Amino acid sequence: MVVTNSLASLVLLLSCANALPSRSKGPAPVLPRPTIPYLENPLEGLPVVSRNGTRLPDYTQAYYFNQLIDHDNPSLGTFQQRYYHTYEFYEPGGPIILLTPGEVDASAYTAYLTNLTINGRIAQTLNGSTIVLEHRFFGASNPYNDLSVASFRVHTVQQAIADLVYFAQNVQLPMPGGDQLAPGKAPWILIGGSYAGALTSYTMTSNPGVFTAGYASSAVVEAIVYVSTFEKPNSGRVLLTVTPHLRSDFWGYFEPVRKNMPANCSADVQAVIAYVDSVIASGDTTAIGALKLTFGLPLGHDDDFAAALRLNLFTWQALQPDSGPNQAFYQFCDALEVQNGVSASETGWGLDYALQAWGAYWNSTFYRQICGNYGVETCLGTYDTTSPYSGWTYTGIPNAYRSWQWLVCTEFGFQQDGAPAGQPSIVSRVVTPEWGLRQCTYLFPGAFGDAAFASPNATGINAAYEGWDTTVENIVFASGTRDPWKEATVAAEGSTNPGSDAQPHLLSDGFHCSDMLIQEGAASASIKTVQDTAVSYIAQWISQWTPTA
Ligand SMILES: *[C@@H]1O[C@H](CO)[C@@H](O)[C@H](O)[C@H]1NC(C)=O
Ligand SMILES: *[C@@H]1O[C@H](CO)[C@@H](O)[C@H](O)[C@H]1NC(C)=O
Ligand SMILES: *[C@@H]1O[C@H](CO)[C@@H](O)[C@H](O)[C@H]1NC(C)=O
Ligand SMILES: *[C@@H]1O[C@H](CO)[C@@H](O)[C@H](O)[C@H]1NC(C)=O
Ligand SMILES: *[C@@H]1O[C@H](CO)[C@@H](O)[C@H](O)[C@H]1NC(C)=O
Ligand SMILES: *[C@@H]1O[C@H](CO)[C@@H](O)[C@H](O)[C@H]1NC(C)=O
Questions:
Q1: Would you state the pLDDT for residue 389?
Q2: Residue 330: nearest ligand to its CA?
């Protein structure tokens, strides 16, 4: 059993690694992860040449660092942590620029060594050297040889932070004088986007003095513990009394989508979703069955059906300012809004047409893209823990979905679900945090005792690393108004941190981590401004650095 070809090709079509990852062993498409954008590396294979004309190793040359398996117990020994590195722009005295790529196989992200990204732009401007250090439990960087609950004892945000610090302090970089570049001897810059952007903030917040400057793009610093934007524990506002798993309600994920998608499509999706919710609430099994068949989705569980409808909205995460029109999200809106070559006005066509059009789009096109030839329960059902296709407890390496879900289930929460009653919603309210947190118990048997749902320690992670209230200095936070993860960043409506000159909060009209890619600056003036402003802040902080060792 491997990832379905159709799903793989959809991901390719979207040219974004994080579009709709599958459960790896099974066919079901599930939640998109907060990852940096995949960028092909067109420089790959070309000779890499240093400033003085010396031929350097290719970007794809992998190196390995002996990393501690358990930073709380070094006697357990080390594992090989993979990294990529170049010094094409380096001049003595320049900074060492470390990217934590987050929850991906780093071998596909060598473009982040180059000047196609903000990392290489900074290196080129400041005479720096770039590194991409794979995250533990992703790609080839595995402390143990499986992804079992026992191995995941050392799969925590705290260990990942300690990896970055220990690497910076101990690596001997494969470059001239590479053993004389530890923090104190050379200035280090930490960069990350999305989850890894949060890791960048957390690392600098909890380990002052190691990194001289940081760049955190679309950084999902705030683990979601609140029920609505205005019920956040440390804001002094009222916190609802809720069971722990309900605190993982991240309906805000869909707010930038609802507000920025074509107005007609947003209106029609809201109308269909309100109708779906009213039919399911009616309890009329005949009507519910007919509704599911309109989409060709006769799923046994209403919440699996409601969750499947989210998949069209999740395709938004693959968008960038320079995305062409042939993207899954736009195909979806065109299917709803263009009738005989004519587009609906901004109010849409209304429920009747939109319902039939959305159903027909699933039935004629989208189902096959997502599920290939798999049956509907196999592909989209989440209740059959014994299905041979489910892959729930498959612990083989690597499996980015599984490794990321562990962090979601134990620490972050981030359950992307319907908005609370009274709020407009493009996602059914039948999708609740329980839908995802129940699956945590299937993925990781025994990890949550006898509980029916995982209870991620989101409160703990926010307390430990200050979430969006961090006061850490010399870090740029770059966010995008169209980023679906925005409501977990410092740019969220719920955040009261205004930023400062020592912690600039830069906002563009970008999508997820758009500002990390130089080509998106060419597609959006506000992204270019963010990139230029960020480079000048970082240049200023680096120029003020003096050696301490
Ligand atoms: C050129 O750079 C390489 C790598 O930084 C270094 O080993 C070599 O000594 C340099 N050569 C000159 C002539 O500067
Ligand atoms: C980016 O770096 C490459 C070498 O890797 C160089 O050929 C190119 O000119 C650089 N681009 C810019 C815009 O400086
Ligand atoms: C980069 O290196 C060049 C050549 O040594 C030097 O002239 C320039 O000032 C350096 N730039 C920075 C920002 O240090
Ligand atoms: C869905 O597609 C199948 C096969 O093309 C067709 O038989 C069925 O009638 C369609 N259902 C709906 C509701 O359009
Ligand atoms: C209506 O939908 C079409 C198709 O997605 C889109 O191109 C157009 O911009 C939308 N128009 C309005 C006013 O929302
Ligand atoms: C939650 O995280 C906090 C802060 O890291 C920690 O002190 C606490 O023990 C954790 N709680 C659980 C139940 O793991």
A1: 66
A2: 5
Q: Cβ(417)–Cβ(303) under 8 Å?
A: no
Q: DSSP readout, 93-134?
A: TPPEEEE---SS-GGGGGGGGSTTBHHHHHHHHHT-EEEEEP
Whether residue 469 contacts residue 208, with contact meaning beta carbons closer than 8 Å, is answered with no
Q: For helices 328-337 and 263-282, what crossing angle results, to 10°?
A: 80
Name the residue at shortest CA distance from atom 1 of ligand 6.
Answer: 460
Beta strands in 207-265 (DSSP E): 213-217
Structural domain spans, the chain: 5-34+224-458, 48-217+466-543
Structure tokens at 75: 């006697």
- Using an 8 Å Cβ cutoff, are 497 and 468 in contact? yes
| Banded model confidence at residue 10, pLDDT cuts 50, 70, 90 | very low
Provide the token pair at 37.
């954008």
pLDDT in tens, 99-128: 999 999 999 999 999 999 999 999 999 999
What is the per-residue DSSP string for 501-518?
SSS-EEEES--TTGGGBH
Task: Tell me if residue 63 falls in helix, strand or coil.
Answer: strand
| Residue whose CA lies nearest to ligand 5 atom number 9 | 262
Mean pLDDT of 219-247: 53
* Superfamily, domain 48-217+466-543: Alpha/Beta hydrolase fold, catalytic domain (3.40.50.1820)
d(CA 21, CA 332): 19
Q: Does the C-beta of 457 come closer than 6 Å to ligand 6?
A: yes
Contact 167, 67 (CB under 8 A): yes
Nearest-angstrom CA–CA distance, 355 and 360:
9
Q: In this model, does residue 54 exceed pLDDT 70?
A: yes
Two structure tokens written together for 392: 């729930």
Identify the weakest region by mean pLDDT among 49-63, 213-227, 273-287, 508-522: 213-227
Ligand 4: which of 292, 295, 363, 373 to mutate, judged by most atoms within 8 Å of the beta carbon?
363
**351-361 vs 263-282: helix axis angle to the nearest 10?**
90
pLDDT at 307 over 60: yes
What 3-state DSSP class applies to 153? helix
